[in-house]
């Protein structure tokens, strides 16, 4: 028979590792999601069969009502041909710059013009900062589902695509300072240093689908 001490040990492990993943969507409606101002989401966002969140028309960005700090977020996504979207996290309001946060780029790498700027703007990249590892990256074409993860703990950021880690970066490191100085965020010295913020699904004017959003707080 297992002793009470054993169960206390298991409980302590769960606390240290952040517990179990929970869904970001109830699969029925957009409860728990808002627009940028904290009001009801735009009508262009729909929840479809299977709990799929579909940006089907003009909608504005979609934000979690809750802020998250350290977390492991898994999700599936697919993009329309020529499309652009993204998943941003630890969103923060910057004076004169608006709401900004690190972004997991969601893109049709073949047809969207942003891909021509460079690999740091292609799918799974830490947008405009760190390109996805080309050797590990296995991107499925528009209309097919990709599996992704975002793992953030302190300043550490990881992006995963279809089972492979494709981005690893630490905010504040020398490497970070170098890529930040060349990015569109160079005018925001404290970009991404905040410890928590909302998660955002981007409306970039194109059709995109998300499903299976599960988050484990670390």
Helical element count?
2
CATH topology: Jelly Rolls
Strand content: 35-45%
Q: What's the story with the biggest beta sheet?
A: 8 strands, antiparallel
CATH architecture: Sandwich
Total strand segments: 14
Give me the CATH superfamily.
Answer: Exo-inulinase, domain 1
The percent of residues in helical segments reads 10-25%
Give the key terms.
218 residues; mainly beta; Jelly Rolls; eight-stranded antiparallel β-sheet; six-stranded antiparallel β-sheet; 2 helices
Textual characterization of the structure:
The protein is mainly beta and 218 residues long. It has one domain: Exo-inulinase, domain 1 (Jelly Rolls, Sandwich). The protein is 10% helix and 38% strand. It contains two helices and 14 strands, in the order H-E-E-E-E-E-E-E-E-E-E-E-E-H-E-E. The chain has helices at residues 4-17, 174-181, and strands spanning 22-23, 33-34, 45-48, 52-55, 62-68, 71-79, 84-94, 98-100, 103-107, 146-153, 156-161, 164-170, 197-201, 208-217. The strands form two sheets. Strands 1, 3, 4, 6, 10, 11, 12 and 14 form an eight-stranded antiparallel β-sheet that branches. Strands 2, 5, 7, 8, 9 and 13 form a six-stranded antiparallel β-sheet that branches. Strand 3 (45-48) and strand 4 (52-55) form a beta hairpin. The longest helix is centred in the first third of the chain and has 14 residues, at 4-17. 34% of the residues are buried. Mean pLDDT is 93; it is low at 6-16.
